[in-house]
Amino acid sequence: MSTVMHLNLRVDPTQYIPQIREVPGYDYIHLVRHPKYMTDLSLLNEKVYYLNEIYSKRQFVKNNHISLLHAHHGQLGILLLPFKDKTNLPLVTSIRGRDATLANQPVGYLENMKMLFEQGDMFFPVCQYLADRIMDWGCPSEKIRVLYGGIDLSRYHYRPPSLGDSQNILSVGRLVEKKGHHILMQAFQKIKDKFPHATLTIIGRGELQESLTSLSEKLNLGDSFRLLNHLPKEKVREHMASADLFCAASIVSSAGDVEGIPNTLKEAMATGVPVISTNHAGIPELVTHHQEGFLVQENNVDELAEALEFMLTHRELWEEYSIAARQKVEKNFDATQQLLLQAKYYDELLGGS
């Protein structure tokens, strides 16, 4: 069995653990840059190492029988170029969102990415939108394999949308600008008087928590709005199961940061919750307007308000949308299938081993 050395930002459950530890037919070595990035000690084992403590790259590769290098962000691919140079191993780099932009990047980032495109062997953008962006930067198309992030469908059981009177709208995601929570809150405020029993719940944590709390007061959302701190996955699934609509109001941030495709949107679709989202980044690869859900122009409060009103007044469409949505996720975003595809791409680089 071949061993892949993976480098990701930190060791925690949100950081692509299955794509590191569960690739069929491949063993793993799990690197982070420094011990401070070992953020979840339950995931610490004898296969976790720290890049800053590796003094001989060749010896490390030999001792651990490593055949392939995989960096899980563009920035980390740049960091592994010296490792590739010393060991002559093939290097794969995943591209996940911000790393295909110049948002908050260090000086020289684009030049370094161009060097990575030249020297790296394969790139896994998480959607076609990001594939197109890195091709615009000069990445050769023959090195690109779009690899959608999959979800574990055994944890998300489809249930038909509720035919009751509840109007619970849910959004889940980090409290950062590109998630568009502030746009959703303003859109919700516009429809609140028409739907006095509707509620909006946002689950997440991040730098905008105080700002969003202030916004809710400014908009007089009152008891119809809840901002819940980051919750364990099982609690999020409980909220998902009781939601009537899910909204991901993703936007390009003022610094230029973008999404790939939000996993929470895939999870809602797998669960059978009708979805509203935006024509942002790779989202239209997941949701086709009026087929698996409802899409609006990003960063547009009025359009999003109209979408909320449309969905709340056309409950008869929910089941049709939700069935199509579940089928779309099963077809293209099933974690089991995506991990098999990842293994197939590794095989390509290693000559079918």
Automatic annotation (TrEMBL):
Residue stretches in coiled coil: none
Protein name in the entry: Colanic acid biosynthesis glycosyltransferase WcaL
Keywords (A to Z) from UniProt: Transferase
Residues annotated as transmembrane: none
Domain Glycosyl transferase family, chain residue ranges per copy: 165-327
One Pfam family cited in the UniProt record for this chain: Glycos_transf_1
Database matches in PANTHER family: SLL1723 PROTEIN, SULFOQUINOVOSYL TRANSFERASE SQD2
InterPro entries xrefs: Glyco_trans_1, Glyco_trans_4-like_N, Glycosyltransferase_grp1
Top-level taxonomic group: Bacteria
Glycosyltransferase subfamily 4-like N-terminal domain segment(s): 49-155
GO MF terms, alphabetically ordered: glycosyltransferase activity
Keyword hit for Chaperone: no
Statement: the UniProt record of this protein carries the keyword Membrane: no
